[in-house]
Fold:
Amino acid sequence: MTHLLPATPTEIFVYLLFSGISLYASWTVWGVVRVMMVERHVRKHGEAAEATVRELKDTGWRINKQPLFELLLDVRQSGRAAYQTKVKKKLGRHQSISTMGVGTRLDVKVDRNDPLKVAIVGAAMTAPVGAFMRQGMPSEGDPVKAMQNLQSLMDKGLITPEEFQAKKAQILARI
Structure:
C-alpha cells in the first residue's frame, strides 16, 4: 500500500518547509491584495481631503518591477483635526520619488468609517492648470512633443483626465 505521509524525517522536514513557505507566500500576497482592495474602495467612496508627505520609505517590495513605498502623511480634512497615517503606494511607470517626496502636497480620499484608510488621488494643484499647460507645452509646430508633455503632466497628477482629453483634442486638431 502506498504511503500518503512522508516516511523519513528528511521527507517530513521538506514537507513542513515547503508548507511553511507556501503559507507565508499566500499570507504576503493576500496582504498586498487587501491593501489594493482597500485603496480602490476608498478612492471610489471616500471623502476628499488634502495631505502632506512627512516621510517616504522604500519597503523593498516591487510590484511589476515598480517600487512600493510607505508614506507617512499629515492629513487635513474639513470638520476633523489634522492627523497622521501611513499609506503604501506603488509609483506609476512615469512617476519618480520627486513627485512623492517629503513636503509634497497630495489630494487624497479618506474612508468615512476609518479615517486611517487613505487613498492618494494625485498631486495637489498649487497653480492654475493653464500655467502648467503654458510652461509645459512646446511650440505649435511639434504635436508629438506636445502629446508627450501632456501625458507627463497627467502622470504627475498636475492635470485631470478631462483636461488631458480636452488638450489632446486641441493638439490633434492641429495635425
Notes: The radius of gyration is 23 Å. The chain is about 40% helix and 25% strand. Helices lie at 9-45, 129-136, 143-155, 161-174.
